[in-house]
Amino acid sequence: MRDRIELAAREILGARYCVALTGAGISIESGIPAFRGPGGLWEKIDPEIAHIDTFRRDPAQVWRLLIRGMQEVLRDARPNPAHVGLARLEAWGLLQGIITQNVDGLHQKGGSRAVVEFHGSFARQRCTACRRRIPTEALDLAHAALPPRCGCGGILRPDCVFFGEVIPPDALQRAHRMAAECNLMLVVGTSATVQPAAMVPLRAKEAGARVIEINPDPTPLTRQVSDLLIRGKAGAVIAALVDAVARLRQASTK
Ligand code: APR
């Protein structure tokens, strides 16, 4: 793996415009279970619970079975070395932005500023009637009747994208612009199975970018799109990658 880390570090240093696409795998080491694979959320509950039609039919059930549990898990989650490492690359001007499928806000908590929340954010709740937004942490779900309601009486919902909903147009546009602009894309901790996020690395490839995957396992991208797969956990791989970049930067300034 060391050679691949070294190669990836040189590519990051030499890139004109580097972008990262991240998925649930980058937050597993922060205690947030992924969706697919061993121990994944969709092994425990039917993904239908996260479909907008289910929410419209029975919001109290979706709050009870999915959303309340998400708040408990996300509330105590902290950024791990992978989030912090990407923020360091951004601070050094070596990473121009992150497109994340995650709704946990850990990239921002880890110090990243240019973050496109492709599936929205769990940090905010939105009223389905007056569309007012309130911070999720303001909700006392332990005692609130479900579904929680806005002051206007409307039902609250996370400001995230449910299955069956479109990606927020602004996020979609920014993500596609970054994919078209970049000449290096790091794809970290995603199974690359959910559209349209899984198309983003393809767009980068079509635009001539190199694609480097960081994942313990191969994905559908690995054979067709990725130029390099660094097999490992995001925390350790990105920490090693950032150290290698730091060493190369130091060597080049001597
Ligand atoms: N570091 C990096 N990657 C990891 C780690 C780790 N420590 N552990 C597991 N992975 C990888 C798995 O191999 C898998 O490829 O993370 C990926 C997690 O895949 P998913 O659970 O499918 O997560 P993601 O790709 O983000 O899902 C996309 O699907 O359910 C929807 O909206 C949800 O945003 C989510 C979307």
Structural features, described:
39% of the residues lie in helices and 16% in strands. By secondary structure, it is an alpha/beta fold. It has 2 domains: 1-32 and 79-119 and 167-254, TPP-binding domain (Rossmann fold), CATH 3.40.50.1220; 35-76 and 121-160, SIR2/SIRT2 'Small Domain' (2-Layer Sandwich), CATH 3.30.1600.10. It has a 6-stranded parallel beta sheet with strand order 3-2-1-7-8-9, sandwiched between helices. It has a 3-stranded antiparallel beta sheet with strand order 5-4-6, with helices on one face. The longest helix has 20 residues, at 234-253. The chain starts with a helix and ends with a helix. The mean pLDDT is 96. The protein binds adenosine-5-diphosphoribose (APR).
Write a brief structural summary.
The protein is an alpha/beta fold. The chain is built from 10 helices and 9 strands.
Outline the secondary-structure elements.
Elements: H1 2-14, E1 18-22, H2 41-44, H3 52-57, H4 59-75, H5 81-91, E2 97-100, H6 106-109, E3 115-117, E4 120-127, E5 133-135, E6 156-160, H7 169-181, E7 184-188, H8 200-206, E8 210-214, H9 220-224, E9 228-230, H10 234-253
Parallel strand pairs: 1-2, 1-7, 2-3, 7-8, 8-9
Antiparallel strand pairs: 4-5, 4-6
